[in-house]
């Protein structure tokens, strides 16, 4: 009778150890920080970069840098992301990150999207990137490259001539400003002429 009880206790102990052995040896996956989406999370200096990814434009040759940023430092931070392509290629994207939460890469948002161009970069791959806040060391990370196959990313697929349109708008603005200055100078000249005419009378 004692032998049977001892055997039963031994079997029960073996079952308990077998059931808990996995957590004793293997790491618990849910305890490891990870990005729940297709992008990745990177903490650099006073800025937390969230769900960053590159999204190809309509041509597939330029890539929109899409991410959310959390800046709790109390002042704007300058963020530079340098992407390292094949061979000696590299492209840098610079952002001024306001305080609070900010979304970058949304053409309908407050921040103008920033694109990078790297020959040979393919959708579905990852690219090595270095994140740096002024005064802080660089943080390396692999960033995924996506396109608009998934519906939730289609809004970040920019038209092929997006950069050209932005540059064109800026140039037009400069031309209007110069024209205004010329008009102002002409008006001043006209005023002086009127005063001289009055004195002459």
UniProtKB/TrEMBL annotation:
GO terms classed as biological process: methylation
KW Signal (keyword) present: yes
Alphabetical list of PROSITE patterns matching this protein: PROKAR_LIPOPROTEIN (PS51257)
GO terms for MF: methyltransferase activity
Superkingdom of the organism of origin: Bacteria
First and last residue of the signal peptide: 1-31
Comp. bias (Acidic residues): 191-201
Chain positions covered by the region annotation Disordered: 161-201
Residues spanning the membrane: none
Keywords for the protein's UniProt record, in alphabetical order: Methyltransferase, Signal, Transferase
Entry protein name: DNA modification methylase
Organism whose genome encodes this protein: Leucobacter chromiiresistens
Lineage of the organism: Bacteria, Bacillati, Actinomycetota, Actinomycetes, Micrococcales
């Amino acid at each position: 009778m004692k032998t049977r009880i001892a055997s039963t206790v031994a079997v029960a102990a073996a079952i308990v150890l077998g059931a808990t052995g996995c957590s004793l040896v293997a790491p618990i996956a849910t305890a490891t920080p990870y990005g729940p989406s297709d992008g990745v999370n990177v903490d650099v200096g006073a800025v937390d970069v969230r769900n960053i990814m590159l999204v190809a434009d309509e041509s597939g040759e330029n890539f929109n840098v899409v991410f959310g940023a959390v800046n709790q430092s109390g002042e704007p931070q300058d963020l530079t992301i340098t992407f390292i392509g094949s061979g000696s290629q590299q492209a840098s994207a610079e952002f001024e990150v306001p305080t609070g939460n900010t979304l970058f890469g949304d053409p309908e948002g407050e921040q103008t999207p920033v694109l990078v161009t790297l020959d040979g970069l393919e959708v579905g791959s990852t690219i090595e990137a270095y994140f740096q806040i002024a005064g802080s060391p660089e943080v390396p990370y692999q960033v995924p490259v996506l396109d608009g196959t998934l519906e939730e990313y289609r809004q970040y697929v920019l038209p092929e001539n997006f950069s050209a349109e932005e540059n064109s708008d800026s140039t037009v603005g400069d031309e209007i400003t110069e024209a205004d200055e010329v008009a102002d100078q002409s008006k001043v000249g006209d005023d002086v002429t009127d005063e001289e005419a009055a004195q002459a009378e």
